[in-house]
Design goal:
Strands 1-2-3-4-5-6-7 form a 7-stranded parallel β-sheet. With about 190 residues, the chain is an alpha/beta fold. It has helices at about 25-35, 50-60, 70-75, 80-90, 145-155, 165-180, 185-190; strands at about 10-15, 40-45, 65-70, 90-95, 110-115, 135-140, 160.
């Protein structure tokens, strides 16, 4: 977040074998073992539509945040499950730009939208446009440099996904190439 505090851990889940059925209850049991309710938040970025549907239906604990692709949020078939999950207290994040208007009952279910830096139409603005209010806060993804992170916060981002390590990696590479003798293990520790 703006104070550089880690607010959640993002876990990306996908099948090792494309099309293989995945068990939502087993995934939630593993997640609960690492992030028990009341002991930290986890954001699930599930890259399997069937598993994501099953997770939404399974009603995970309230510390589990669910990232829902915009195309799923716009489908009427998912409306009841999304609104039930929201009513239970889970934080929902919408990923991507909806191709059509979301159902009225679904839009308020999302606390944040995830906007990739490369897709952000506000890049170049130093602050949110005057008179523009958003009902959903946004989390910026695709940030790799400190300056990008600062600019995202200036545009109103509530958080950034990932940790902008591009500057540290570039500095470590520059200091390694500038020295005539490589420092034994030093560049690895600098990057870490």
């Amino acid at each position: 977040d703006r104070q550089r505090a880690v607010t959640a851990t993002r876990l990306t889940v996908f099948p090792l074998v494309p099309g293989a059925p995945l068990d939502a209850a087993a995934l939630l049991a593993e997640v609960a073992a690492v992030w028990p309710e009341g002991d930290g938040r986890v954001s699930l970025n599930v890259l399997s539509e069937s598993l994501l549907h099953d997770l939404i239906e399974a009603q995970p604990s309230a510390n589990v945040m669910i990232e829902v692709p915009a195309f799923m949020a716009g489908e009427a078939a998912h409306t009841a499950a999304i609104t039930a999950l929201h009513a239970k207290g889970n934080t929902l994040l919408i990923k991507g730009r909806p191709l059509r208007e979301l159902p009225r009952e679904v839009l308020p279910c999302f606390k944040y939208s995830i906007i990739d830096l490369s897709d952000d139409r506000r890049v170049g603005e130093t602050q949110p446009a005057a008179g523009a209010t958003r009902s959903i806060g946004f989390v910026q993804s695709g940030v790799s440099r400190i300056a990008e992170m600062e600019a995202s916060f200036a545009r109103g981002a509530v958080a950034v996904l990932g940790w902008p390590m591009g500057d540290a990696i570039a500095q470590a590479a520059a200091s390694t190439s500038a020295s005539s003798k490589p420092k034994s293990g030093a560049s690895d520790l600098e990057v870490i």
